[in-house]
Amino acid sequence: MLTALTGVFGDRGDAVSVAGRAASYEDLLGAAGAVAADLAGWGPVPAFAVTATASLETVAAVVGGLLAGVPCVPVPPDAGPVERDHILRDSGARLLEVDFARRAPAPGPVPSPGEDPALILYTSGTTGVPKGVVLSRAAIVADLDALAGAWEWGPGDVLVHGLPLFHVHGLVLGVLGALRTGSRLLHTGRPTPEAYAAAAAAGGSLFFGVPTVWSRIAAVPEAAAALSGARLLVSGSAALPTPVFRDLEHLTGHRVVERYGMTETLITVSGRAGGDVAPGTVGTALEGIATRVVAEAGAEIGELQVKGPTLFSGYLGRPDATAAAYTGDGWFRTGDIAAVDEEGVHRIVGRASTDMIKSGGYRIGAGEVENALLDHPRVREAAVVGVPDADLGERIVAFVVAEGVSGGELTDFVAARLSAHKRPREVRFIEAVPRNAMGKPQKRLLLEGEERHRP
Ligand code: MCA
Ligand code: AMP
Questions:
Q1: Does the first or last residue of the chain, that is N or C, have fewer Cβ atoms within 10 Å of its Cβ?
Q2: Tens of pLDDT along 220-240?
Q3: Ligand 2 in reach of 260 Cβ (< 6 A)
Q4: Contact 375/83 with Cβ under 8 angstroms?
């Protein structure tokens, strides 16, 4: 499954470079072999966890898990104790410490892609605690091969990004994609404009980023100009604003290719290398994927639903939630609102629920942040929303009913429990959360208030 590690593309000392440290495929395979040997020594475990810093250790852990056939649970390094404990308890995973200097022979070839689980990624729903999304080897391979076709991605590429290694974007596409296609990987540690420009100067050809990364690059014209020699710039995880697309076209000569997906479905829709790409569109369904838009009578937009070999195997231990994610006739309900034109080009218009927030490309369930706030003894009510933000797409704003506590204290309280990016950027104190006759919070009213706040 990780073709690059079999030597077919040759090897070099900087085949995989993460946050300033480089390794050859041979080094990586040796370190991953040591991980696999540790896992074999544990005896049967349902999964293992790794603190997924942006490092060669995380790459070795994930590859080692694939060699050993034990699913890997990458834990966000900044997850607070509440989130971390939940992930470890829910998955039953034991935490592994990786030493990249160790070497052991691989226990055998990387097993061929099957339905067995490779990764369990935790992701937020609209309410409650994050769920474990189980991804099989077969789903990952189907997705990477479809993307390699769409982007003409191969061993001649040098893939550059600086995304976190605990989500689909940075880990599945950004690490396993490089190891499957044989492209060198240059992970910049942090996705700053300067680091992307330096990576371009070092020969980077294929660049991945979330819209926040692209808009920060567009704001530094010298850094953007350095990307003109790249082959392909790809954006995903949230909507790329049209002005950013235009600025980058002007500064780099590239029309950024957008692609769309979810943790549960992997990437299902994308623009093509060398194809027509229009701003505000995310392209056509990838090879093997079927999509449909289920609209109310007379409407052109509706919920996007998908089917295909890249779909997840289910939410870990949650058959109820898995069943609820599908329609009666077997389509996965994305919860995204989309339109598709006669050519099959998709446009993502929004989300069905205000309770799913996308900030900096991170998916955040309003319910999880509300529950963290409600754990504070001074908080009586909390309603969390995503407010439009030029840098982050949406920023988290918490409306709370509380006395005797400051906004800063509440933000710190959330940060002590959950990952850093789940902290509210702003806390607003209100008299009461507006509710309908059924007692359900009316968050759109809070957002309407927000629109009125804007200049
Ligand atoms: C952040 N900071 C805060 C708060 N939030 N300080 C106070 N209160 C807060 N509420 C701090 C940060 O810790 C940081 O501090 C500083 O403010 C700047 O933060 P921020 O603006 O968030 O910038 P950043 O830390 O540079 O993050 C921007 C980012 C990041 C790099 C774009 O959001 C990111 O890596 N996003 C990628 C998410 C992703 O990979 N999603 C993929 C999901 P200090 O500077 O001290 O650290 S997978 C997926 O979606 C699918 C399948 C798909 O389609 O790809
Ligand atoms: P996650 O599970 O974290 O990968 O988040 C998936 C969600 O990200 C999707 O349901 C969409 O709402 C959003 N998303 C991903 N890619 C795009 C895109 N290109 N345009 C708009 N939204 C996107």
A1: C
A2: 999 999 999 999 999 999 999
A3: yes
A4: no
**Residues 19-72: tens digit of each pLDDT:** 999 999 999 999 999 999 999 999 999 999 999 999 999 999 999 999 999 999
pLDDT-based confidence at residue 451 (cuts at 50, 70, 90): low
Query: What is the whole-number distance in angstroms between the Cα of residue 218 and the centre of ligand 1?
Result: 17
Closest approach atom of ligand 2 to CA 335: 10
The b/e string for 232-259 (b: 16+ C-beta within 10 A; e otherwise) is: bbbbbbbbbbeebbebbbebbebbbbbb
Q: Which residue shows structure tokens 């649970």?
A: 73
**Helix ranges, 314-424 (H):** 319-324, 366-374, 407-415
Q: What is the DSSP letter of 286?
A: P
**Nearest residue by C-alpha to atom 8 in ligand 1:** 425
320 CA distance to ligand 1 middle (Å): 31
Architecture of domain 3-347: 3-Layer(aba) Sandwich (3.40)
Residue 179 and residue 2 in contact, taking contact as beta carbons nearer than 8 Å: yes
Of all atoms in ligand 2, which is nearest to the CA of residue 363?
3
Ligand number with the minimum distance to the CA of 257:
2
pLDDT score for 382: 97
Length, in residues, of the chain: 455
Domain regions of the chain by residue span: 3-347, 356-453
> In one letter, which amino acid is 298?
G
Name 192's Cβ contacts closer than 8 Å, sequence gap at least 6. 162, 216
Q: Which CATH superfamily is domain 356-453 in?
A: ANL, C-terminal domain (3.30.300.30)
387: which strand partners?
Answer: 395
Contact by Cβ (8 Å): 118, 136: yes
Alpha carbon distance 160, 18 (integer Å): 10
Report whether residue 363 contacts ligand 2, using a CB cutoff of 6 Å: yes
Ligand 1 close to Cβ of residue 212 (< 6 A)? yes
Between the CA of 429 and the centroid of ligand 1 the distance, in Å, is 25
Residues 6+ apart with CB under 8 A from 121: 73, 74, 132, 133, 135, 166, 167, 168, 171, 263
Residue 282 half-sphere exposure toward CB, CA atoms < 13 A: 28
Question: What gap in Å lies between CA 135 and CA 150, rounded to an integer?
Answer: 21
Q: How far is the CA of 43 from the centre of ligand 1 (A)?
A: 37
